[in-house]
Amino acid sequence: MNQTVAEKIISAHAGRAVTAGEIAVVDVDGVMATDATAPLAIQAFEKMNGRQLWDPERVSLVIDHATPAPNERISNLHKLMRDFSQRMGGHFYDVGEGICHQLMVENGHVKPGDIFVGADSHTPTYGALNAFAIGVGSTDLAAVLLTGKIWLKVPETIRIELRGEFPKGVTAKDLILFLVGQLSISGATYKAVEYTGPALQNLSLASRMTIANMSAEMGAKSGLVDPTGLTLPYDFSPTFPDDGARYSRHIQFDVSSLQPQVAVPHSPDKVRPIGEVVGRSIDQAFIGSCTNARLEDLHMAARILKGKSIHPNVRLIVAPASKRVFDEALGDGTAAILSEAGATFITSGCGPCVGTHQGIPGDGEVVISSTNRNFQGRMGNRNASIYLGSPAVVAASALRGEITDPVELLVDLEIAWELL
Amino acid sequence: MSIAFGIAHVYGDNVDTDRIIPGKYTKTLDLSDLAQHVLEDLDPEFSSRVRPGDILVAGDNFGAGSSREQAPLAIKAAGVSAVVANYFARIFYRNAINIGLPVVEVGRHEIQTGHEVEVDLNKGLVIDHTTDRVYPATQMPQVMVQILQAGGLVNYLREHGDYV
What we know:
- The complex is a heterodimer of chains A (420) and B (164).
- Helix content of chain A is 31%, strand content 19%.
- By secondary structure, chain A is α/β, with parallel strands linked by helices.
- With 164 residues, chain B is of the alpha/beta class.
- A 7-stranded mixed sheet of chain B has the order 4-3-2-1-5-6-7.
- The longest helix of chain B is centred in the middle third of the chain and has 9 residues, at 90-98.
- The two termini of chain B are 19 Å apart.
- Chains A and B meet through helix 2, helix 3, helix 5 and strand 7 of A and helix 5 and helix 7 of B.
């Protein structure tokens, strides 16, 4: 049988060979829930008469969606999670340690070839590691805590083949925004996506995570990045699809001609080349989220903002992907460059992206953000407009006070360096 | 399984979970809080207009976006007895069944707000009594039927202890 990556990984966990369309009950390698989903999961687990976790070593709880707690209601939900974790065991990541998806990868809780179930829709991020990772809700998660299993419909797969080289200043974020725009917000509903081709081979793990992450914005169940060129701090055996595997759709694209991309209000699939939106005045710029807040993202912003000051009418908010990322940015001078340019650093977490707290825009305000969703009300105010772009686009826009193509700034920077 | 009968509230395509229940309201275990803000950013009057038993009807990809189970919980807590759509986003679809909110996929439909609609889960039919049109529902996987019959995944696992 010629199988896709999803079919191979699911077969290995179902104890039999499966193909798209079949229902399979599979063993799960790891689970994770956040303060947005764990309280309901804990409640459901207890109602299922759960007395102990099926395997505490494979369970992680993360406080990242409203961290530190903005009010007593949320701090009591955090307390519920801490109490549960102390009684039941498992890994627990408290205030400030980082965004769940970053922590799962940084701390090796998910590995290539795994089936990982996360109570967060951006769990497909771990497809960057060649893991079949799916987002679920709280009750499905509780059932895994109890049984170590989940039922799945084996998905069909869309294969996206990417050639060429990224132009300077054009990043993995621009590519995935472009693809979300092409496929639409429902283009991969119930399906897996395989990303492959020479354009991806030199990408960092961080960039691969950005691509896999926004598979969620196509409605995908999982997004799997070809592991060719992937380096990890441990040995692993990569999973490749068989020749002749069946795909529901093939897409080919050459990234060489890609421009920076921006999603305009109010949907992540309303994507435009940046040329169509440059000059739009902005009030707030945000670099953060599980999509784009890793060290390479902060480096990109620092290249653009070094020795400069952001526009006086703009506030630039930065929430690093994890404490480790923040510490690295402190250690190599990146944090100082951004702070001196006018950036405000906030706790590592999801708050501004999901509209919980820290950076809620005012009525009529415009935000440029390195995050993944710009639905109406997403950042906490239905009367604000959110544009999504790469960290380079966000930094360049913060500098000028309007949506700005970072490519021209980066070209100017290179000329300046050559003159020195 | 049950039969739902109520007045339809019809919305369009791609109603995302941020518009079903904004993220700022999800951090609670109090379902009445959720019901109060359901669909607030899409239709601010919905929570005051909806009556127990009413049926929510939508187009493509209802429930796109976040994994928040608070989305179907908010709809259920508001008194909605079933959701009918062309098709659902996958996490929302699972979540709804898991909490015992009937969700039915019908492909295309011409149901309009105010129509009297019946959802017959046994026969797998959605009936628009205002126009007398009948829409066959897409067949659900057997495991989902069992979970829905049990009233949700909590009850299913209390009964069986594992997936059977």
